[in-house]
Amino acid sequence: MTATGTRPRNDSTRSERRPFRGVLVPALTPFTVDGSPDQATFVSFCIWLLDQGAHGLAVFGTNSEANSLSVEEKIDLLDRLVGAGLDSARMMPGTGCCALPDSVRLTAHAMKLGCGGVLMLPPFYYKGVSDDGLFRSFAEVIERVGESRLRVYVYHIPPVAQVPITLGVVERLLAKYPAQIAGMKDSGGDWNNTKAFIDAFATSGFDVFAGSETFLLQNMRHGGAGCISATANVHPGPIARLFDTWRAEGADPQQARLDVIRSVFQKFPMIPALKSAIAHHGKDAGWASVRPPLVAFTPGQANALIADLDRQQFAMPGLAAR
Amino acid sequence: MTATGTRPRNDSTRSERRPFRGVLVPALTPFTVDGSPDQATFVSFCIWLLDQGAHGLAVFGTNSEANSLSVEEKIDLLDRLVGAGLDSARMMPGTGCCALPDSVRLTAHAMKLGCGGVLMLPPFYYKGVSDDGLFRSFAEVIERVGESRLRVYVYHIPPVAQVPITLGVVERLLAKYPAQIAGMKDSGGDWNNTKAFIDAFATSGFDVFAGSETFLLQNMRHGGAGCISATANVHPGPIARLFDTWRAEGADPQQARLDVIRSVFQKFPMIPALKSAIAHHGKDAGWASVRPPLVAFTPGQANALIADLDRQQFAMPGLAAR
């Protein structure tokens, strides 16, 4: 990894096993007026994210409203991204669904397109499931997809999925699938949990991504791999820059600035807030739409957010020009 | 409704608006050795349930592992039931998914097949969603399906979905869609909540089904419409009989006997327990299979369950002969 500015490079051995490091964006999904995914706007937005310095695209995450999209809609969006020439090796689409056949279908499609990896939620309908059941859920997808080059990042997000991924599950998965189990995203918001996974598995080549840039510097200093963060949708450049320069002087003030911007968004419901910010700064009102069960911002909420962001000199350079 | 033994009849006006009363079974889904839904066994089992006296089939419920099935698998199973000559008017398939297009597709298919109604979960990935967001979720499905004969039963199961359906949401839905919003299943396990919905909406023709036969007699005495219960998979005859005779003498002892049998199953994880009981009493070991994230019983668990059931002289008449 370089110390300043430029895109980080992995040593080649590591790179073959673990394709991602840095700041990945769980790209938001724009909708047209009839409520369908707006494919053209999605592609254009993903290009902007990479142009800003994001290291990868974790499309179909929680903030992408991925579970409000059908499998077919996700396949179409992924096809469209790859068709537009974006590098699939830099994509880590979310492919974990409640139904095993859906997870297998999406994961196999991502592999067919050459995606660098997949981010996999556990099945999230049943609660209180056993470690054995969770292990089998991931194992069945890996077995059925049957691709040695598959790289799975397990997705721990107990505040939403309500189904946590334990150290025990990862230990069993790594023992059985050491090549395929590549890492995790920890969106639990508890640094001690993130650190426990790094301590337990990082030396086995298991890459731990923090679920928020709030923990980015801390995560890198402890041996993590980066972050996959909602607010990277609106603040990709500065977050990526901290990753690119985290060993340099000035990393702490950078982190502090990221925290200020994130704290503004955290005062609001996150997904409609992010979309409202993009609608405003990208001069594209359609971006504010969300799918039920989420609700778009009222003009009053949007104005309050924008005023708060203006007070922090927040900007999204180049977005409106696209 | 008749007082004893025979199948209940509604008065015709009510029947046109609200097609279901009685005991509906959230039919379990059997799997073949390769993990696919076992369509032939499913059809045969649903016929047995109706032969035992069940009043309807709420296929694709929580106990059906419905959220572990793809939309395509559910469509195929429903087609197979109807193709086998089962009366679709007595079917209330679960059609509520996380993704709006999936809920619309399944609901439209159920309407095409002539299903009497659908049981609709709220989108269950995002937690803490607003009443406005939940209202919009159901409203969008109703609008997009666009069938005046659609009958929606909303599905309140906070212990699993973690997204409750409030009185306020039902009030708004009933005001906007008085014909389509037909009732609910309350699987919250809190009789006071069930009663609150009956008190608020039963006089508007909103049919409240208890989520367990534990509350069947209480529900009927307070103006409810019946129950949709997991254990109706294994104990359909006696549960249906209580509904058919709830006004007669002897209803309380019947309820007490139902409670004894249910209490045996409640000592175990419900879905694998129900499937193990069917595997044993139906002499079909394949029935014990579940999909991840659930885990099938070990022989020891199965033996413990069967021994407990034997002590209660539990039987599933005619199942093994099918």
Q: Which whole number gives the mean pLDDT of chain A?
A: 94
- Order of strands across the biggest sheet of chain A? 2-1-7-6-5-4-3
Helix content of chain A: 40-55%
Largest sheet of chain A: 7 strands, parallel
Distance between the termini of chain A: 31 Å
Q: Name the overall outline of chain A.
A: globular
Question: How many individual β-strands of chain A?
Answer: 7
The chain pair forming the largest interface, with residue counts per chain, is: A-B, 39 and 39 residues
Helical stretch tally of chain A: 13
Binned strand content of chain A? 5-15%
Radius of gyration of chain A: 18 Å
Oligomer: homodimer
Q: What series of H and E elements makes up the topology of chain A?
A: HEHEHHEHEHHEHEHEHHHH
- Going by helix content, strand content and strand pairing, the class of chain A is alpha/beta
Question: How would you characterize this protein structure?
Answer:
Two copies of one chain form a homodimer. Chain A is an alpha/beta fold. Chain A has helices spanning 12-17, 39-51, 71-83, 100-112, 131-145, 158-161, 167-176, 191-201, 216-221, 236-244, 251-266, 270-281, 299-311; strands spanning 22-25, 56-57, 118-120, 152-156, 181-186, 207-210, 226-228. Helix content of chain A is 44%, strand content 8%. A seven-stranded parallel beta sheet of chain A has the order 2-1-7-6-5-4-3. In chain A, helix 8 links the parallel strand 5 and strand 6 (207-210). In chain A, helix 2 (39-51) crosses helix 3. The model of chain A is unreliable at 1-15 (pLDDT under 50). The A-B interface holds A 35, 62, 67-73, 98-102, 105, 122-127, 129-130, 132-134, 136-137, 140, 159-163, 291-295 and B 35, 62, 67-73, 98-102, 105, 122-127, 129-130, 132-134, 136-137, 140, 159-163, 291-295.
